[in-house]
Design a protein that fits this description.
Elements (H helix, E strand, L loop, with lengths): L3 H67 L3 H8 L3 E9 L4 E10 L5 E4 L7 E7 L7 E3 L1 E6 L4 E5 L22 E6 L9 E14 L5 E7 L11 E4 L4 E4 L2 H7 L6 E5 H15 L1
Antiparallel strand pairs: 1-2, 1-4, 2-3, 3-7, 4-5, 6-7, 8-9, 8-11, 9-10, 10-13, 11-12, 12-13
């Protein structure tokens, strides 16, 4: 005999089982999705860690190779010369705008003479010298004189007791294979130097219009806007030359080498500028 009550109970039981199965399926789907997400997170994390470790290994290898190649402590060289390096900002007016040119300079004397390139500050409206220290000292500079042919300019700022660069006058020890470093800080940031290690790969003598002999040194690093106007040093922190993008383009012999004027000639040019200004 047909029992309506039992039929209703069976339907309720079936519906309950269907809902239970649906919930179980939903739970399984959620678990599966979470497992897939966790798997991708694990893979992504592993790849990130692997790339980080690999990058560190490559960096260590590059650093160790650099140290073994040049066989000296670059940091110690920088520490010997960095207090005499400054940033020079020149504001030049053109037809429409006021353009800011940034380059590196070297403190030439304790009483505030600054050595840099002339090409970047030619026709400058204002010139400022920034010291790359925590205090961020900035001083306005005036042009004392310049030599456009060799891209040398002498600036003057107020003050005394500045730490001057050790500019080497006697270059008899400069020869092929000498370890050198080009250093720049065109933006004046603290502990943010552009460093280019290399070796002396050539020495050329050039006679100008007045039959004066000028020595140019070649090295296997690049001179660019980051280090132009800055010093080229030997491993003792002695300055043997000054970088100049203009002179490098004028006198370089290949794209694999840079050419810069020797410090001995720079000293002669600066002395002529000072004598002419007094």
């Amino acid at each position: 005999m047909f029992n309506r009550e039992n039929l209703c109970k069976d339907k309720v039981h079936i519906i309950f089982k269907q809902k239970r199965m649906l919930n179980i399926n939903r739970m399984l789907i959620v678990i599966l999705i979470n497992a897939i997400i966790s798997f991708f997170i694990l893979i992504t994390g592993s790849i990130f860690i692997y790339n980080t470790l690999l990058s560190k290994v490559h960096e260590d290898l590059r650093y160790n190779y650099s140290m073994s190649e040049y066989n000296y402590n670059i940091v110690s060289v920088i520490n010997k010369v960095n207090k005499s390096i400054v940033s020079v900002s020149a504001y030049v007016k053109n037809d429409k705008d006021l353009v800011q040119n940034n380059l590196t300079g070297v403190i030439y004397s304790e009483d505030g003479y600054i050595l840099t390139n002339f090409s970047a500050i030619k026709d400058a409206y204002k010139i400022y010298v920034k010291f790359p220290t925590a205090l961020g000292l900035i001083k306005e500079a005036k042009v004392v004189g310049y030599n456009a042919e060799y891209d040398i300019c002498l600036l003057k700022i107020n003050g005394n007791d500045y730490i001057k660069g050790n500019i080497k006058e006697d270059l008899s020890e400069v020869s092929y294979g000498l370890n050198v470093i080009s250093i720049g800080n065109s933006l004046g940031k603290v502990n943010s130097y552009s460093i280019y290690p290399g070796i002396v790969s050539g020495i050329n003598l050039y006679k100008d219009n007045s039959d004066k002999e000028v020595k140019f040194i070649k090295s296997n690093f690049h001179i660019n806007y980051l280090n132009t106007g800055g010093p080229i040093c030997n491993t003792n922190g002695e300055i043997i030359g000054i970088s100049s993008c203009l002179l490098n383009e004028k006198f370089k012999l290949s794209d694999y080498e840079s050419t810069y004027i020797s410090s001995g000639n720079v000293i002669e040019i600066i002395q002529d500028i000072i004598e002419g200004a007094t």
